[in-house]
Specification:
The chain is α/β, with parallel strands linked by helices. The chain has 12 helices and 10 strands. Helix 6 packs parallel to helix 7.
């Protein structure tokens, strides 16, 4: 798999990583044995970047990764693990983002991940005022100086938050929703990141599975799957579920995307390839609930770039079916 430098971390990572939210919860049941086989399939297929958070299953995702890497010293040294912090506090209270809180949160993550120093810790979609608070970034600098983490970044919801983070001199990476149905970051965020040397981690790349082409109007999701309980933002930002696109609209548009899939590729691989081709993207982090999905995602990099005609057709699907439904804040 081709590698790219992850912004100011200076670390080389494969362009297709693994998002590990589903190993903790909110995607239906994923057992411990399944979590291990998914991780194993991913790294054996060339994945070198794992993304998790301290709140995924209240640390369950982190612990699964920590246990796996402890059992596989042959891969541990070449794998970069990014976790997130901040959602254990009141997500609407900027004053909660303090040095003392960062110490508590990173100490817990270090224990879960079985490491002295985190590779990368990211603020987990904090309140917008946090991005404009110097004391927050001073505190992040301190936890780097302490050796709790080697680098820090931010996970954001909006373009404005991303641009504010990129302007901070020690932010190593920005994680943002980017997919065929969420194209706004192409206009300002990716060019600004390239100019500043900040890494871009593209999340929700398959719009919560819509862009796999496997769902229709009759698909049912488990009660503990966010695709069932967060369609209107009941639990957290609605943009994290189906990229904020109404489900019926997304299903219809995904069928149009599926019709554009080149021979030999899956629709999911088409959607991932589109992201990998965007200048400024460091790594894309699709999730996987089975080893086969992890292997197929990793195989995306084997395919040639999408041609101009396919790119233009994908943009037309967005313009005709999706654009009018994208909230202006995104």
């Amino acid at each position: 798999m081709q590698t790219r430098v992850l912004g100011r971390t200076g670390r080389e990572v494969g362009v297709v990583g693994l998002g590990c939210w589903q190993l903790g919860g909110d995607w239906g049941a994923v057992g411990d044995d399944t979590a291990r086989t998914v991780l194993e399939a991913a790294v054996d297929a060339g994945v070198t970047f794992l993304d998790t958070a301290d709140v995924y299953g209240d640390g369950r995702s982190e612990r699964a990764i920590g246990a796996f890497l402890a059992s596989r010293p042959d891969v541990a040294e070449r794998v970069t693990v990014a976790t997130k912090m901040g959602r254990r506090a009141d997500p609407h209270e900027p004053a909660a983002y303090t040095y003392e809180a960062f110490c508590r949160w990173t100490d817990r993550s270090r224990e879960n991940l079985r490491t002295d120093t985190l590779d990368l810790v990211q603020l987990h979609c904090p309140p917008t005022p946090v991005f404009h608070t110097d004391a927050v970034f001073d505190a992040l600098d301190r936890i780097v100086e302490d050796g709790r983490t080697a680098a820090y970044g931010v996970s954001v919801e909006t373009v404005d938050e991303a641009l504010a983070a990129i302007a901070r001199p020690n932010v190593a990476s920005v994680q943002i929703i980017l997919n065929v149905f969420r194209r706004k970051p192409l206009e300002q965020v990716l060019p600004a990141a390239v100019e500043a040397g900040v890494g871009i981690i593209a999340r929700v790349p398959l719009a919560s599975g819509l862009l796999s082409g496997k769902y229709d109007e009759n698909t049912q999701f488990a009660a503990d799957d966010h695709r069932a309980f967060n369609r209107h933002g009941e639990a957290f930002d609605v943009g994290e579920t189906f990229a904020g696109v109404p489900y019926d609209v997304g299903v219809a548009a995904a069928q149009d995307v599926a019709a554009l899939t080149p021979s030999g590729m899956t629709t999911a691989q088409l959607a991932l390839k589109w992201i990998v081709q965007q200048p400024g993207v460091s790594v894309v982090i699709p999730g996987a609930r089975t080893p086969a999905q992890a292997q197929a995602n990793a195989a995306t990099d084997r395919f040639p770039d999408l041609d101009d005609a396919t790119l233009a057709s994908l943009e037309r699907v967005y313009d005709d079916k999706i654009r009018q439904h994208v909230h202006t804040r995104w």
